[in-house]
Amino acid sequence: MTLTDLLDALDAGETIPAGSPLHVVMHETSQEALRITGELNGSYHEPARVRELLAELTGAEIDESVTLFPPFTSDFGKNIDLGRRVFLNAGCRFQDQGGLHIGDDCLIGQNTVIATLNHDLAPSRRGDLHPAPVTIGNNVWIGANVTILPGITIGDDAVIAAAAVVTKDVPAKALVVGSPARVIRTVED
Question: At what angle do helices 3-11 and 21-42 cross, to 10 degrees?
Fold first, then answer.
């Protein structure tokens, strides 16, 4: 099994059984992500070097308009897609195996947690992983200490208030607050 096989299975939403060959590839890839984020977080780097490390982590080109303030963690890295003019503030933690797309002009607040995997509820299969992508539209502002659960889509121009726990899709131009997050109003120009 290869990383390409794993990404194909993850992107298709296939369950990754614990101990399977795909699970082994995921753990191997995670070790690489730990190495790269360890280097990223271990000392100061100029912004261009931060983007180089982020490109190494994701395996994709990172636009020169992307800004990341470490520390940053990702336990996989290879299923992150970042748009242009994205700002990732300090302390973000991404579990991206299931797929994470962040659109253009997004502001991601400190200590944001984005999860794209669920474990099986059945105790006998608890180690099995169920991927579900997170999609964040363009011009989204996510406040500090937000948690976004697997399978969520956040529409363009939405605002996620600090400390919200996003458990269901967020419409475009919605302002959501709380745990679980709920729409309180629409954001106007």
Answer: 100
